[in-house]
Amino acid sequence: MQRWLIIGSGDVAQRMVAHLRKPQQLFCLCRDEDSARRWRGLGAIALRGDLDQPATLKRLAGLAPVVFHFAPPPSSGLKDSRTRHLTAALSQGKSLPQSLIYISTTGVYGDCQGLQIDEVRPVNPQTERAKRRVDAEQELRRFGRQTGCRIVILRAPGIYAAERLPLGRLRQNLAVPLEPQDPWTNHIHALDLAQAAWRAQWKGGNQRVYNVVDDTRMRLGDFYTLLARHFGFQPPRRLPMEALRLQVGEMNWSFMRESRQIENHRIKREFSLTWYYPSVTKFLATLPGTVPVLRGTNKSI
User: Fold this and answer.
1) Model confidence at 295, in pLDDT bands (50, 70, 90)?
2) pTM (2 d.p.)
């Protein structure tokens, strides 16, 4: 029975467990007892530890040949200290990981002015959040080169699911960009990201990057308009970008000012993938036209 270590114990990681066709011995790093209890219920061995506290990571050394790293970087700075702490801990074991799958973000490409891009596009991070992700990717590549561990990087855009829809913006009647300025946006359902992560263990190439995006071609304002129509909200107002910047927070503005259409040919071809939800429209067709009730789901990756 192969040992798998999961770092980042949120929604996508839990969905991935459902893809296990053969029994695996699962270990999961958990920051608190609530998370540990959930993972014990899934049959995993919960290890209490914190990526911000390197001394708590000693048990990870030599623990498992396969590592799934879904934990986000810290909330500030230009470096991902958490990934650096993780690779330092994994390097201490008598046996080193053979494979490490990391979920990064398509935000590393920066603003592409609406162009269609694929994985050969050079990274151009324009926010601190994206720069931390680039740092994590570079650290993991370095770790792979030094140890021989196979590194697979999955770049994901906005993750959605029934309980991960931005309905709060619609409730607040927040505006979206005017159509000529409306940026292209990209999406992936949490279940499809989970299956991509699972398949990366078997199909992913060493030091290879994959864009994990669905087949949707949609602009940001159109996305919110689609949600509004489905759930019975008033369609969002349209404003010029200059006016929007004064109304939205810095994080929302960082999403609005970047526009790109991301291709997914590589992952679909090399992973032999068929999406559960190839578009947001097809996903919404499976939902009733009522607002989902949130039940405290852990929405982190």
Assistant:
1) very low
2) 0.94
